[in-house]
Amino acid sequence: MNKSQLIEALAKAENLPVKKAEEVVNTFFGDMEEALVKGERVEIRGLGSFKVKNYDGYTGRNPKTGEMINVAPKKLPFFKVGKELKERVDIEQ
Question: In sequence order, what E strands does the chain have?
């Protein structure tokens, strides 16, 4: 499911105009994004949690040339699936 499908599903399920459903979805994801940018953790019970992980820099190798290169430290979003979703996905076949 992509974002536009999610908007359509919300509009249908809640009997909302598509524009209103789009506003709700955009607000939801926008607030999640802002929290992660601030370094906050976002937890959605039954689904999982999002947080930003810090990765140290390291010396890597260019696979094409074999040249050693320095990879800068970085921050990346990380999702950890919740127990309920993990169990449900494992059961559903």
Answer: 42-44, 48-55, 58-61, 68-71, 74-81
Could you tell me if 50 and 78 are in contact, meaning their C-beta atoms sit under 8 angstroms apart?
A: yes
Domain count along the chain: 2
∠ CA 44-22-49, nearest 5°, is 15
For residue 22, what are the domain limits? 1-40
Q: Give the Cα separation of 7 and 2 in Å (integer).
A: 9
In this prediction the pTM is 0.78
Provide the pLDDT for residue 29. Answer: 96
pLDDT tops 70 at residue 24: yes
pLDDT for residue 92: 58
Same domain, 18 and 32: yes
Same domain for 35 and 73? no
